[in-house]
Task: structure prediction
Amino acid sequence: MSEQKRLFLVDAYALIFRGYYAFIKNPRINSKGVDTSAIMGFMNSLLDVIKRERPDHLAVCFDKGGSADRVEMFEAYKANRDETPEAIKVAVPYIQEILKAMHIPIMVKEGYEADDVIGTLSKQAEKEGYQTFMVTPDKDFAQLVSENIFMYRPKSFGGGYEVWGIPEVQKKFEVERPEQVIDFLGMMGDSSDNIPGLPGVGEKTAKKFIAAYGSMEGLLENTHELKGKMKEKVEANKELGLLSKKLARIMLDVPVEFDAKDFELDHPDIETVKTIFQELEFRRLTENFLKTFATETETHTTTAGAAKPEEKPKPKPTSTAGSGQFSLFGNNGDTSETGSETSNTFTRKTAETTSHFYQSVTPGMATKLFIKNLMTQTSVCFDTETTSINPIEAELVGIAFSWETGKGFYVAFSEDRNEAQELIEQLRPFFESESIEKIGQNLKYDIKVLAKYNIVVKGKLFDTMLAHYLINPDMRHNMDVLAETYLNYSPISIETLIGKKGKNQLSMRDVALDKQTEYAVEDADITLQLKEHFQNELGEANTQKLFDEIEIPLLRVLAAMELEGINLDKDFLNALSDQLDKDITNLEQKIYAEAGEEFNIASPKQLGVILFEKMKLVDKPKKTKTGQYSTAEDVLSYLAKDHEIIQNILDFRGLSKLKSTYVDALPLQVEPSTGRVHTDYMQTVAATGRLSSNNPNLQNIPIRTERGRQVRKAFIPRNADYTLLAADYSQIELRIIAALSEEETMIEAFKNGEDIHASTASKVFNVSISEVTREQRSNAKTVNFGIIYGVSAFGLSNQTDLSRSESKELIDTYYETYPKLKSYIGKQVDFARDHGYVQTVLGRRRYLKDINSRNAVVRGAAERNAVNAPIQGSAADIIKIAMINIYQKLEAGKYKSKMLLQVHDELVFDIYKPELETMKSLIKTEMENAFKLEVPLDVDLDIGDNWLEAH
Result:
């Protein structure tokens, strides 16, 4: 008896939209500025289905021109839908080209929707003895489910799939037969498709009617059994109900034909797919694609209703001896595109295919001759190879140098520290030469490593990572990506030398010298070539000045701060940890008492059941895409004021996170060799220009809670001769928006030294400043800061005790009070629409590719960024200027006091007590005069024996 064949029909647009919105907060933008999110999301889903299920037959179905028949029936059908986002319009032709290259049939028919194409093909295939799996998250397809037709539904992104057969549809919709889903949809309507349904009939009522009457027609024949308003509404809208059912029915007579041979999953044209992926700059997706079509899939867990793994056709092995791999399709011995993964070569250039001359420099005379030549250069790229990615503990293994494309040298270092120091002394003239430009990728790391050997890197610097960040802030900036994107070159992977992470990973010292040389000099060579490329682009993007005067000088400042580190009181944190344990235990007991049983409070699933099934805190609890109750913070925060258990749960979460993330973790991050904590500031993460902090992240220590504030008490001065000083810009973002909008009322308030929130409250509530209540000031403060982030009446009502109508009135009054502020916001959005970007006071650009999108949600996010990015970015630029100027003054004056931390709008210093008054004056002057605005910058200074006292 032959096996039952399986056909997979993919609902193209459903997965394309799903892929696009999965990346909406972090879009995938390539170097050409193309948003590739939709393509990447769709292809990941498609390859996932192929890897999981190894279907015999597969097709992808598209809409074209919408449903002519449904529009003829009901002109408003789907009329309320937003315009398709531009990124999806761009994506579709690429996706179709990829599918053609993969030899996957594209099923589309003018005037019909993909639903109808899939429905028709499913029923045709069923008659020919096929099992059909409709790959779509769209619930409408449930009406097609039968003994041999299943829905193959993606769960939340990356969460796998679930298969709906008849039992699943019966349970989900509470119907006897899947066809009754048509009646269900017709009764309740569908806002996304603009199907009207019966007025007043929602999901629960529709299920009740299906149970009682079986169908739309059954309901309409028995309206005499209904009561009150419902009876009136249903009887008055019978025609609308019947029309809605027609609109909800998937058509099964589309003029398409299922020809089994055409739908067989065939071997793809791998080179063409790779070429398209290269154009789109898909590195990992290329690897995923090659693995999908070059290896035998391991056994997967079977989903309900799907064929068992052993029922699937077994791939035929290729004839490549010893490859240990199998072709998915079998190719009669032709292994040019399959076989082992190592045979899958990219068309990019590599060290093996590119002519180059990389030489290791031997000790003695060769080293002296090399250095003599080195010192005659005007611009040199260098790259350190070390024993660790932690620069504080890293030791030099070697340094690569390159000043001519395709050529370079490698100087290896001895493990003996004295010998290594002797060699670095020979290289000191190069590093400390003011006349030789030094080029590198992430130079901050190299500068910190060399500082351990008492080497100061002087002269002009060019960091390719920072340059690319200014050119294309939304893209990744690591060297491999940059090399592949801009030079069409794939560098040697570090893992080929030292292996993957884990206990068996080698040190660079364990690698043979010839391999060290090839790897290290290639890095220097490629970085040199990238510099030549980015040098021109900095000018074209008008960011050369920002690069030269802000980001590069700041690199040196951050290196010094990170090397300095900050002292930590571990005993205090240990005591705080014990206190938190007691607090957490007390909260647990309260929660258990309120719930009436013990359960895992940290389990969202268990918590959801307790709150929404047992305690029934809300009538219609929100659910996640996986079907479990949502216990996310935004959901619980909304309920906290009405239910004590919710507030206790939020407190429990806050204290548990505080304990694990900071109180218990910080002592483990003290560097043994220095006894201090050394955070790593990253310049190339936030597109706004803000710095981010890592290992540990000192910028996210909670400040709004008492326990959170106590963590700052653990940060202490160097010793008894020092004190901590914190200098904080007061309301800098509001001052910037006042200045940029030229809003005189707000500018005057700042110039007069008024409390801006009280001043705003006075104006919008029409009372004198002395009569402003605490609540009025709080609401005004929320609006003041909310305006920068595009706060809505709904958002304001959630953040305050105001109703939505009161919130709207407050926002309207606010804009009446500050008309130029509203005008400025409109001008910012208009500028972004015309130019595709906005910029800070120093010209830092934030590109907004979606600013002209016809999709309201996508466009709205871009419009908020058009207002917010210049404000946040300008604040970031100003504090960077202050940091550079203060650092240079501290160095020039040879002061003992040091700048330690930057946290948002605050700088923290370790002040040598005899220098305190000088430092107060110097720091305040430099910060307040970092940049001249129409509004004065104001800085609050304080000192203390710990960071909390000084804050």
User: Anything to note?
Assistant: The domain at 734-868 is CATH 1.10.150.20 (DNA polymerase; domain 1). The chain has four domains: 6-262, 357-565, 568-677, 734-868.
